[in-house]
Amino acid sequence: MKRMLLLTAGLIGAAIGARADVGDPIFPCDMNDKSRAEFVYDHMNRKTDLTIGDQPSTEQKINADIFMLRIHTDVGKKAYLDFDVGGIEPTGSDFGFYGGIGVRLLAYDSEMWRLSAEAQGHYAPSLSGKVGGVDSDYHIWNADAALLLSAKLPVEDQFRCLPYVGPVLSIMRLDGKTNTGSDENVSADEKSVIGGVAGVCLQLPGANDIRLEGRYFGSSAEVSVAVGIAF
C-alpha cells in the first residue's frame, strides 16, 4: 500500500504545473465489462512558422490549456472509439470550444507487454485573441497518430503500473484573419511533425486510473494528465 501511495502522489505532483494526449494503455479487455470516461487536462506547446499577411514567416510558439471529457466507446475487446468534448484557452485568447474523435487499437497483448496504435483529430472552430501579437479571429486543428509499447507491472493486488513509450506523428495548423481592419490572412504550421511520447498509467481498484504523459517535438514539450473513471 505504501508503494501505491507513493506512485499516486508522484503522478499527481508531477502533473501540477504541467494538447490532446495520445497515449492510453487501457482497453475494454481490462475493464471487466465496465464503461469508462476520462477527464483530461492538456497543455499545448508547439513551435510553429507563423505568417501574417505578406510578411515573412517567423517562429512563434502556440500555447494553450485544454480541458476535455473523453468518452470511450467499446469496439469489441481490443479497441476504443473516443469522443472528446471540452474547451481550449490559448495564451492571449478567449476560451473556446474544443472537440475531437479518435480510435485506439490493441495490436499485441501478452502477460508483460502490449503494443497499441492510435489516431485522433481535434478542432477548435472559433477562437478570438492575439496571434503573434495581432488581434485575430482563427481556428486550430490538429491530427495525431502514435505507436505505443507498454509494460504491465504489478504493484500490489488490484494495482498495476503501465509505463508506455513510442513515436508520434503530429500535425497542428492555425488559420484565420486579423480583425484590425486590414483582414490579413493568419496561418501557422508546426515546425516538427515527428516526435515522441512517454507516459505512465496507474490502474487502481475498480478499474479507475490516473495517467501522466509527456510529448516531445524538437525542443518543444507538452504535458497532460488524465483521470479515468469506470462505471
Condensed summary:
This protein is mostly beta strands and 231 residues long.
State the helix count: 1
Task: Give the low-confidence spans.
Answer: 1-19
Give me the secondary-structure category.
mainly beta
Q: What is the straight-line distance between the termini?
A: 24 Å
The percent range for strand residues is over 45%
User: What would you call the shape?
Assistant: elongated
Q: Radius of gyration in whole Å, from Cα? A: 19 Å
Helical residue percent band? under 10%
What is the helix/strand order?
HEEEEEEEEEEEE
Q: How many E strands?
A: 12
Overall pLDDT level? 88
Characterization of the model:
- The chain has 231 residues and is mostly beta strands.
- It is 6% helix and 68% strand.
- It has one helix spanning 2-15; strands at residues 36-52, 58-74, 79-90, 96-109, 113-131, 134-151, 153-156, 159-178, 185-190, 194-203, 209-217, 220-230.
- Strands 1, 2, 3, 4, 5, 6, 7, 8, 9, 10, 11 and 12 form a twelve-stranded antiparallel beta sheet that branches.
- A hairpin with a 5-residue loop joins strand 1 (36-52) and strand 2.
- The relative contact order is 0.23.
What is the secondary structure topology, with strand pairs?
Elements: H1 2-15, E1 36-52, E2 58-74, E3 79-90, E4 96-109, E5 113-131, E6 134-151, E7 153-156, E8 159-178, E9 185-190, E10 194-203, E11 209-217, E12 220-230
Antiparallel strand pairs: 1-2, 1-9, 1-12, 2-3, 3-4, 4-5, 5-6, 6-8, 7-8, 8-9, 8-10, 10-11, 11-12
